[in-house]
Design a protein that fits this description.
Blueprint (H helix, E strand, L loop, with lengths): L6 H7 L11 E5 L2 E4 L4 E4 L2 H4 L8 H11 L12 H13 L4 E5 L2 H20 L5 E5 L8 H6 L16 E4 L4 H7 L4 E6 L2 E2 L5 E2 L2 H13 L3 E5 L13 H5 L5 E4 L10 E5 L1 H4 L15 H14 L2 H25 L2 E7 L2 E6 L7 H10 L2 E2 L1 E2 L4 E4 L7 H20 L2
Parallel strand pairs: 3-15, 5-6, 5-7, 7-10, 10-11
Antiparallel strand pairs: 1-2, 2-3, 4-12, 8-9, 11-12, 13-14, 14-17, 16-17
Helix pairs in contact: 3-11, 4-11, 12-14, 13-14
Catalytic activity: N(2)-acetyl-L-ornithine + 2-oxoglutarate = N-acetyl-L-glutamate 5-semialdehyde + L-glutamate
Protein name: Acetylornithine aminotransferase
Family: Belongs to the class-III pyridoxal-phosphate-dependent aminotransferase family. ArgD subfamily.
């Protein structure tokens, strides 16, 4: 069998649910990536907010290598030291008293929603099962989570849809007031809508959600799969807002590139997931837990979190300077190093054109829908990489504008 593969190989052997860019990365270091031909790229995509410490961070490589020479997998018939150490650290640094470890953001949200319904059934009866989510939200790709998500394009064709899910306008206190009732078991909110356009929540909105959940004996779930682990300038975004959820889902940046997910919750709520009610074969395996433990250790260092906030300002200043030249953005928004550039009306629907133009300038960026260019770089991206990456974005936008 030949080992030579190209982008064309993807179209020959892979299920066509993705449409990757034309180059194949083969090596990464920090915020730089090299393709098969040796071309160097600057990475402002971060694996969709996953590579929280960039590529091949030496402390993560060391943690993975050390654990790889000890113990890879046991299953949850047994526990293991790295999983217990990770869970202990997460409870020390957050509101949580209990942790469930899994493998991805979708799995974390699936567990969170199941826990919310089980808790409601245990305490209030089977009629309290309704979940309120937000329009344009995204919570994963399982049948359950894709329907809790507020983007119908992702759930179409996979029906019948699960019952008991309502979607309301994001950041609308009145819409939430109208929708919530004593049948509501949970309200789920992203502190910053990621896939929905990098749109931060208003503090008053999250405060109102907390109060309404209290009034109706509903649980408040924060989906921090994308916003967590330092991405927004605090370990978790809820800490920036001063609003504490009952359940929090975490993944993406938690493993720094290694697949891992978690839900954080209180002891009282966790009791509803008793022995046998939920599980995962790989969740909490020693390899993932060792890497995630090191990620949490590094990201929670004050200089890293302070750096995220400083780098946010550097990005926004640079992006606004670019926009002053080309007038392609309505606004630049976001928190920390989750940044969205909302396209001006004359470029509406063309976010992927910006991604392709950036690719030609050897810059990796993301989109968030049709109208937002999204940046989610390493939390420790060097200033020189920020500046050079923004220069490449400037060149990409210049070429796009001149081609109009």
């Amino acid at each position: 069998m030949s080992n030579a593969v190209t982008r064309a190989t993807f179209d020959q052997v892979m299920v066509p649910n993705y449409s990757p860019v034309e180059f194949i990365p083969v090596k990464g270091l920090g915020s730089r990536v090299w393709d098969q031909q040796g071309n160097e790229y600057i990475d402002f995509a971060g694996g969709i907010a996953v590579n929280s410490l960039g590529h091949c961070h030496p402390e993560l490589v060391a943690a993975l290598t050390e654990q790889g020479n000890k113990l890879w997998h046991l299953s949850n018939v047994f526990t293991n030291e790295p999983a217990l150490q990770l869970a202990t650290r997460l409870t020390e640094l957050t509101f949580a008293e209990r942790v469930f470890l899994c493998n991805s953001g979708a799995e974390a949200n699936e567990a969170a929603f199941k826990l919310a319904r089980k808790y409601a059934t245990d305490h209030f009866g089977a009629d309290k099962y309704e979940i309120i989510s937000c329009k344009n939200s995204f919570h994963g790709r399982t049948v359950f989570t894709v329907n809790v998500g507020g983007q119908p394009k992702y759930s179409e064709g996979f029906g019948p849809n699960p019952a008991g899910i309502t979607h309301v306008e994001y950041n609308s206190i009145e819409a939430l007031k109208e929708a919530i009732s004593d049948k509501t078991c949970a309200v789920v909110i992203e502190p910053v809508q990621g896939e929905g356009g990098v749109l931060p929540a208003d503090k008053a909105y999250l405060e109102a959600a907390r109060e309404l959940c209290n009034q109706h004996n509903a649980l408040l779930i924060f989906d921090e799969v994308q916003t967590g682990v330092g991405r927004c300038g605090t370990l978790y975004a809820y800490q920036s807002y001063g609003v504490t959820p009952d359940i929090l889902s975490s993944a993406k940046g938690l493993g720094g590139g290694f697949p891992v997910g978690a839900i954080l919750t209180t002891s009282a709520i966790a009791k509803s997931l008793g022995v046998g009610t939920h599980g995962t074969t790989y969740g909490g395996n020693p390899l993932a837990s060792a890497v995630a433990g090191k990620v949490i250790e590094i990201v929670s260092r004050p200089e890293v979190l302070e750096g995220v906030r400083a780098k946010h300002d550097r990005f926004v200043t640079g992006l606004n300077a670019i926009n002053a030249k080309y007038h392609v953005f309505k606004t630049v928004r976001g928190m920390g190093l989750l940044i969205g550039c909302v396209l001006a009306d004359e470029y509406a629907g063309r976010a992927k054109d910006f991604l392709k133009a950036a690719e030609k300038e050897r810059l990796m960026v993301l989109v968030a829908g049709l109208n937002v260019v999204r940046l989610a770089p390493s939390l420790v991206v060097e200033d020189k990489d920020i500046d050079e990456g923004l220069a490449r974005l400037d060149a990409a936008i210049a070429s796009l504008v001149s081609a109009r």
